[in-house]
C-alpha cells in the first residue's frame, strides 16, 4: 500500500495518546478517527477504518477474522486508575453492577472478578448517570471520566487492574491494534510500533500538553502514563490476555475463547 493513507480507529481517552505520537502529522500518511472503545470494533467490521485499537473481548465475536497487528497495546500490571468499580457497599455485597456503555472488555472483566474473587454472579445493567446516580449501589466506569467526573457519593472503589493482578499475578491487556486478516497493510505494523516508541519517549510532553485539555491534572497524568499503564504486548501481557479469555469462557461470559493470531 505504498503511498496510501491509513485510516485508524483510536480510543478517545488519554491512554491512547502514547500509541499515536507523531501519527497526526500531515506527512505520516495516517487519518485518525477517535471514538469510545465500544464503538471501534464496528468501524473495523464495516471497513470504515483499516485498523483499530479494539477492546480485546471483541475478538470472541463469531464471524470476525482479525489479527493482532502490532506489539503496541493498552494494558496494565496492577492498578489502572481509570477502570474502576465505585460502590456504596462492600464488594462482596454487590448484586447489580451498572456499567459504562463505553466499555466492552471491562464489563466482562468485572463479571469475571466478582465470580472468581467474591463468588458472586453480578446482574449487569447499563448505567444512565442522569437516572441511576442516586439509585445504584455500584457503577463501573472507564476512561478519563473516572478522573474528571467520578461519582463522589460512591466511596468504595475496586480497581479492576489491581484486582486482576491479585487474582492471577499477571498483567492485563485492555486493547490492541487489530486488522482484518485478509487486509494488506504494508508497513503499518512497524509504523504503529514506532509511534508507540516515540510516545514512550515523550510521556512528559503528553502529560503536560495534552492531558489538561482532557480534564487531567498534569502530575496525575504523568504518574498514570509512566507508572500505571503498559504499552507493549510482551510475553507476560500475552499470557494475561490468553488467561482472561480462557477464564471468561470457563465462566460462561463468552461463547468461546478464540485462537489469537498475531500478524
Description:
The structure is a single chain. This protein is α/β, with parallel strands linked by helices and 263 residues long. The protein has two domains: 6-78 and 171-250, Periplasmic binding protein-like II (D-Maltodextrin-Binding Protein, domain 2, 3-Layer(aba) Sandwich); 83-168, Periplasmic binding protein-like II (D-Maltodextrin-Binding Protein, domain 2), CATH 3.40.190. The protein has helices at 40-45, 105-118, 129-132, 145-148, 160-168, 188-201, 203-209, 218-228, 235-250; strands at 6-11, 30-35, 51-55, 66-76, 83-87, 96-99, 123-126, 138-142, 156-159, 172-180, 229-232. A six-stranded mixed sheet has the order 2-1-3-10-4-11. Strands 7-6-8-5-9 form a five-stranded mixed sheet. The longest helix has 16 residues, at 235-250. The radius of gyration is 18 Å and the shape is globular. The protein starts with 5 loop residues before the first strand and ends in a 13-residue tail after the last helix.
